[in-house]
Amino acid sequence: MSSLLRFKMVDAAINHTAVEVTPPKGRPSDYFGAKVFSQAAMRKYLDKQTYEVLSNTMENGTPLTREVADSIAAGMRQWALENGADHYTHWFQPLTGGTAEKHDAFAQPDGFGGVIEEFSGKLLVQQEPDASSFPNGGIRNTFEARGYSAWDPTSPAFIVDSTLCIPTVFIAYTGEALDYKVPLLRSISAVDKAATEVCRYFDRNVSKVHTYLGWEQEYFLVDESLWAVRPDLMLTGRTLMGHESAKNQQLEDHYFGAIPTRVMAFMKELEYECLKLGIPVKTRHNEVAPNQFELAPVYEEANLANDHNQLLMTIMDKTARRHHFRVLLHEKPFKGINGSGKHNNWSLGTDTGVNLMSPGKTASENLQFITFLVNVISSVYKHNGLLKAAIMSATNAHRLGANEAPPAIISTFLGTQVSAVLDKLAAATDDKAIRFDAKDVFKMSGIAHIPTLLRDNTDRNRTSPFAFTGNRFEFRAAGASDNCAEAIITLNTALADELTAFKQRVDEKIERGMKKEKAIYEELKAMIKACQPIRFDGNGYSEEWREEAKRRGLDCETSTPLIFDRYLDERTIGLFDRTGVYSKVELEARTEVKWETYVKKIQIEGRVLGDLTMNHIVPTASNYEAMLLDKVYKMSHIPGLNATSDIALIKRIQDHTAEIVRLTEEMTEARKRANRIEAMREKAIAYHDTVEIFFDEIRHHVDKLEEIVDDRLWPLPKYRELLFLR
Ligand code: ADP
Ligand code: MG
Fold it and tell me: How many domains does one find in the chain?
């Protein structure tokens, strides 16, 4: 790669203007869900009986018979063909991250020299993708070589381009989950069961509790021509080198600023595509860092919301390419400016329409709210290390604790009002003194004329990884590229377990003759006191908090491979076993995959870094050095000229280059040593402790060179080009 190429690409980036987008016909309400086999489509394309059986399955999980599956497949095929589909695929979420699909044509030889469009119930319900190359953490070797994908009727089929996509789970023949959807569904039903029981203390009519998820997706856009000449961005998703731009986000002029025209064209097309797929996109804005943006939909039932997020990430990538952008979902693509997260807004709601994480209007509703709130924070306290493991990855590790994102310590922020209520409850000696009327719970002196909700929203702490935001919890530590399921599975499961134990203790008290309300109060009081250490309303970025958190006994581990150990703690194994979300075998397998993925990511970064330094940076620096040497040599022939500053420059280049070469060689050696380790956990630890430690050091010298080497020679697009051309 040469600097000529860089300039050509900068030129191309400057010349990229907004791509013309054909405006959608009609209003969003006309095309929303047009590419989804929705309830409306089902009613139209299925006979009444089939529709009813399927509805029952979607609501209550009753198994489908072969005949019904055939009828559904026939209707679905009809709908898909009428909507331009010619292929179908099972669409699943393997542990690689992202989604997997294998397209088959509907067209099938009819035996008379022609073709006929075919799609049977068998093809709809179950397939056997050749899945041996998906990560499985050893499950498929130890148990059974085959895996299969099976339709999840709770999330509707949809069409992308001309392919009918059928959301499926992906499991081993022996039943172990090989994906994110299976455990997510299990966790949703675990929390439904446990929460419904507790709700019935307050309202006998509750028969189901839903999990809701509203994600906020942050991302960067980079011009595709520049991206193409940054091997690090292309292969690792982040810049492994690059001196900070003189201007980056310090003026805070990007956040909520006017959206650039080219980006707007991209967003409009993206939103149109999303709406057609039934993704209820709502919010778009510039984020804090230059070229960083956010998209958020209206929250939905968690399984569907998660499918939609997975789908969004794919659609984003495709759409960005049409606009000559590349979308970066890496958690930390650029040094020195904010990285990207994916806030997971999480709540539970009953089938009677009550949000269990929102203060209610009556005393009983508020006691129910406090009950759920306390159970949430108590479960987060008990499993804070595990929750961190759920959102930790080689990529997210760069963002957490980087003074812009939550620290690598999980704590909860409740806001002053809710905190005060809990403290009052814990301290109360006379039960009658506590009355949870809405105005008691959210009384704020002086500004009573401001509606309650507005006040909740202003009471915020951006540094908290897990914040209560008025009617939901916001898990902010999740990374931009994560599958949200990981976080939601852990939250749901921990809460389900907590609620079950809570219910048992309250029931025991009631059996011993205590009144229900009093039993609940007593339990909550004890729990509030016990989980005090997880509550933290201060500045999560501060050094003092790290010290304080350690004193409080919260999980402060920062090494990614060691954080994964939390998945195999006895406590974790017990938790997932009791709730039926993961078996021990599944936990072991998934942790193995996590270590393996970590190793691969760092391995790739190490290789790319080595390639860039030795094949791009060092030769460039040497060229410049040769030019200077030539100059100094010539100068020495002319009396009276002083070459001191040139010589000093040459020496600096020499020093940095020598360090880069030495460190790169050492890193390569360390990598070779790590590669010889068999056990995946130990290998991951070796990569973390002995390989990754070179990255920043090497980068430091490269970035120094970038500062002094002639800009005309520098081969890699610089930060100012990557971040400000759009
Ligand atoms: P902010 O950036 O201020 O945190 P946004 O409006 O960008 O807020 O995103 C908030 C997200 O939270 C949206 O996806 C929204 O639908 C979701 N949300 C709102 N209420 C709930 C709730 N009760 N449960 C789950 N998600 C919710
Ligand atoms: Mg948010």
Answer: 3
**How does pLDDT run across 692-718, given as a tens digit for each residue?**
999 999 999 999 999 999 999 999 999
Cβ atoms of 370 and 524 within 8 Å: the answer is: yes
214 close to ligand 1 (CB < 6 Angstrom) = yes
Distance CA 580, CA 587 (A): 12
| CA gap 256, 2 in Å, rounded | 37
Q: Do both 111 and 214 map to the same domain?
A: no
Whichever domain contains 467, its CATH number is 3.30.590.10
From the CA of 299, the nearest ligand is 1
Query: What would the pLDDT profile of 662-687 be if each residue is shown by its tens digit?
Result: 999 999 999 999 999 999 999 999 99
Provide the domain limits for residue 694.
Answer: 596-722
Residue to substitute in 309, 345, 350, 468 for testing ligand 1 pocket (most ligand atoms within 8 angstroms of CB): 345
Tell me: do 154 and 173 sit in the same domain: yes
Q: Tell how far the Cα of 528 is from the centroid of ligand 2, in angstroms.
A: 26
Q: How far is the centre of ligand 1, averaged over its atoms, from the C-alpha of 138 (Å)? A: 38
| Centre of ligand 2 from the C-alpha of residue 216, in Å | 6
Helix (H) / strand (E) containing 292: strand 292-297
Residue 4 domain flag: no
Atom of ligand 1 nearest to the CA of 355: 23
Measured distance CA(42)–CA(40) in Å, rounded: 5
Q: Is residue 10 part of a domain?
A: no
- Is the beta carbon of 283 within 6 A of some atom in ligand 1? yes
Whether residues 550 and 417 fall in one domain: yes
User: What Rg do the C-alpha atoms of the chain give, in angstroms?
Assistant: 28
Asked which of 42-56, 98-112, 415-429 is least confident by mean pLDDT, the reply is 415-429
- pTM check: above 0.90: yes
Question: Can you tell me the distance from the alpha carbon of 76 to that of 68, in angstroms, rounded to the nearest whole number?
Answer: 12
Instruction: Tell me, in angstroms, the distance from the centre of ligand 2 to residue 475's CA.
Output: 8
